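pls ignore typos typing on phone
iron/sulfur cluster + seq
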Amino acid sequence: MKGILFTFALLSPIIGGLIYGLERKFKARMQNRQGPPILQPFYDFFKLTDKRALQVHSFHSLMGIAFFVAAWFAVFALLIGPNILIAIFLHVLALLFFTAGGFSVKSPYSVMGALRELAHILAAEPILVFAAIALYLSTGSWNIEGILTSNTVPILQMPLLFCALVLTVPILLKRSPFDISEAHQEIIGGAEIEYSGLFYEAVYTAKWLEYIFIGVIVFLFGGSNYLLGALLVAATFLFVWLLDNATTRLTIHYMMKFAWGILLPLAAFNIFWVAIWR
Amino acid sequence: MFGFFKKFRKKSPWILHYNTGSCNGCDIEIMACLGPKYDLERFGIINKGNPKQADILLVTGPVTKRARARLLRLYMQMPEPKVVVAVGACACTGGVFRHMYNVENGIDRFIPVDVYIPGCAARPENIIEGIKKAIEIWERKQKEKVEVPKVLKEIPDVETLDRREIISKLEEKYSERLVIEEDEK
Ligand code: SF4
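k done
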């Protein structure tokens, strides 16, 4: 088990890239376009290696690389670490590096994108923490191996919380209707705007790791039933891609109201209900 | 080593589209190329909208006097290797706006242009063909060589200047900040 999880964590940038390629293909097919090849993210990756890198200043570039390293570290902590809560906090740390980079340059789009990124963290991470608590409540373990070998199926006890988690995925992955911090053609990528060449490559790859991170958390809701877990992951991603194609960007206030007014009470209600019922 | 990465250029060209005061006819055609009917994304092309990450600069319009410094600024912000495509009669020569008091008759007075796409408006098929030509030219370019905007051609030894010096010369000429705080790597 440990060996498989370790290899998965090691290969996670590649698998994340494949998921991103699939996403682009699927979204193109939904719009009746042919779409790029599935390996397109890797072509982009290799091309960016051969571009001249224009640094704004070294701290900014360092934060781009730190984002990638910390995001990968969070995936490792999730897959082979002792506690999934730690992985969630490391994930916040990775996003904070990214925001620090965004704040460190004078470009207004970058600063605005970093501010919005903070709002994303505020909206999405509490629900991830609740998801970890829910996994503990229904399986009795904070550890990924314990969850994967327990004989309960968390989604059966936590249906409302799972719905809240699925609706958090667009906030985490910055997909429409919650693509507020990236907002292509409005603030043109937000905090990633000033990166170029190799440094943009780091940020670009770090975003693939987000798929793995959220995908694994969704997978855990299948418990020891791996087929159910895989189905949940596929259904979640398909739903998010469809939602991305079908909706337009909402405002930041709406996102906060939605996350703290609807998703969080939903998740909390589910947790209290299960905790009291047992 | 770098020959290996060069092969992937033609698979993932990212474009930056800038309108220097065109009538929007050509812009609509570029958008049509990216839409479902012509679907440029099947070649890996996306409209990045960000000069620091773009490879191909698509320019439409005759360059109004207000747009010229912005055009130079976008051009200098793009990292090498890069190519420039002039889309439509306006961007090539000034088109219907030629010799008006507020325009500069085409972009090639300011920046080196690699591909000219004729037509008013340029047809999507032409634009796709032009981008294909641009990619062929782009594959031969070096990332070390800095191309000098044509407005600086009269300065002696302009080819030996580095990026920084070119930017400061341009800022002198137009008395405007072009690129804010940037080191070179
Ligand atoms: S070439 Fe014609 S269609 Fe294109 S911007 Fe100029 S006037 Fe408009």
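The interface with chain A takes residues 2, 4-9, 11-12, 14, 36, 39, 41-44, 49-50, 52-53, 55, 77, 79-81, 143-144, 180-185 of chain B (CB under 8 Å). Chain B has one domain: 9-174. more later
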